[in-house]
Write a structure and sequence with these properties.
This protein is an alpha/beta fold and about 190 residues long. It has five helices and nine strands, in the order ββαβαβαββαβαββ. It has one domain: Rossmann fold. Strand 1 and strand 2 form a beta hairpin. It is globular.
């Protein structure tokens, strides 16, 4: 399958397969998340759980492929993301297969973008948030999109100390900024 899409005046063509998330069109939650981000030339972006690559490719078209890292646990997703990066002229993106942060050693990202699997239990997004905090540079931001609010809001506040929530098209886009080197609630008694 082929998806042709335009996000904020940036045209992207993507090859997909039925097996991957949102195979016939770019997910509305992903579009909601991308609508609130404002990437700068000096940003370093991690597309966590990249799927077939729309988020990382979009970022690379704005800030350059050398400033983007994409990762996914699924071998087919990584293969398609690499092909789609080539197809869109941003082939220098570093795209790795691995479980979340396991294949990525960088700890100086300024932006982490993630559309987690939020219909399952919270173990995956919990790990994304906790480990992601340590991969961000001071001042860096994590953007996460879900259809659920309460658990994500509480978890992001407990780790980052605060969160801005955008409600767009039935989705919640969470924007949390790392302001200090330790978790916000670390050492706090409950």
């Amino acid at each position: 399958m082929i998806i042709n899409t335009t996000i904020k005046d940036i045209g992207i063509q993507l090859k997909t397969v039925e097996k991957l998330f949102s195979p016939t069109s770019v997910d509305r939650g992903t579009l909601a998340m991308l609508s609130v981000i404002d990437l700068k030339d000096d940003d370093k972006v991690l597309d966590l759980g990249c799927g077939y690559g729309v988020v990382g490719i979009y970022a690379a078209k704005i800030i350059g492929s050398h400033n983007v890292v994409m990762t996914d646990i699924d071998e087919m997703a990584v293969k398609l993301a690499k092909g789609n990066a080539q197809l869109n002229g941003v082939s220098k993106i570093r795209i790795v297969q691995g479980d979340a942060y396991d294949s990525v050693e960088d700890n100086d990202f300024t932006v982490i973008l993630v559309n987690p699997p939020y219909h399952a239990d919270f173990s995956v997004p919990k790990r994304f948030i906790e480990k992601g905090f340590n991969r961000l540079h001071i001042g860096g931001k994590m953007y996460m999109v879900t259809k659920r609010k309460k658990w994500y809001k509480n978890k992001l506040i407990s780790i980052f100390g605060g969160v801005k929530i955008h409600h767009i098209d039935g989705y919640y886009v969470f924007e949390a900024q790392k302001k200090k080197i330790s978790y916000a609630m670390k050492g706090v008694e409950k």
